[in-house]
Amino acid sequence: MNFIKKKISELKQNPKNPRDITGIALEGLEASIKKYGYLEPIIWNRQTDNVVGGNQRLKALNKIKDPNEEIDVVEVDLSLEDEIDLMAVLNNPFIQGTYNRQVLEILAKIEIKDPALYDKLSLKQIKELARDLKKLLKQD
User: Fold this and answer.
1) Which of 19, 40, 84, 132 is deepest in the core (most CB within 10 A)?
2) What's the whole-model pTM score?
3) Which has the minimum average pLDDT: 4-18, 38-52, 77-91, 122-136?
4) Distance (Å, rounded) from C-alpha 134 to C-alpha 94?
5) Given the DSSP bridges, would you call strands 42-45 and 70-76 parallel, antiparallel or unpaired?
6) Is the model's pLDDT at 45 over the cut of 80?
């Protein structure tokens, strides 16, 4: 694994990426990157020239950044078979851990204070998010 610089325009979406992102979620990701910066490097496979991790971040970067801007990426050197395995691992919800009850209780009470991040979300969607967090708390 190496950290290298690549132009955004040099990175291409992986046609085998198992995840998709809705318009509203993509807008939220764009707003997050605008506010906090590009914090999670994209994973790029030298052998296939595909993005292995970070396809949604790449979509957002393509919309909000100059395509000639260089960004840090994690370079891996994997066969196509290993690339597919890694994508499955990176997108596996069963190995992503569980929620911390105390943190969920705090999140469920948060008032949206930064309209730059949430201006695309309707009040209904924000209430649904709070409701979903409360449901997770009850499952414990």
Assistant:
1) 84
2) 0.73
3) 122-136
4) 21
5) parallel
6) yes
Radius of gyration of the chain (CA): 17
The residue with tokens 């979300």 is 121
Under a CB-based contact definition with an 8 Å cutoff, are residues 111 and 103 in contact? no
pLDDT higher than threshold 60 for residue 10: yes
The sign one gets for the Cα dihedral 135, 120, 41, 59 is positive
DSSP conformation class of 36: H
Tokens of 46: 């030298």
pLDDT at position 106 over 60:
yes
CA dist., res. 8 & res. 55, Å (int): 12
**What is the phi/psi pair of residue 69, to 5°?**
-70, 135
24: closest CA among 101, 129, 108?
129
For 10, counting Cβ atoms within 10 Å of its Cβ (0-12 exposed, 13-18 middle, 19+ buried), the class is middle
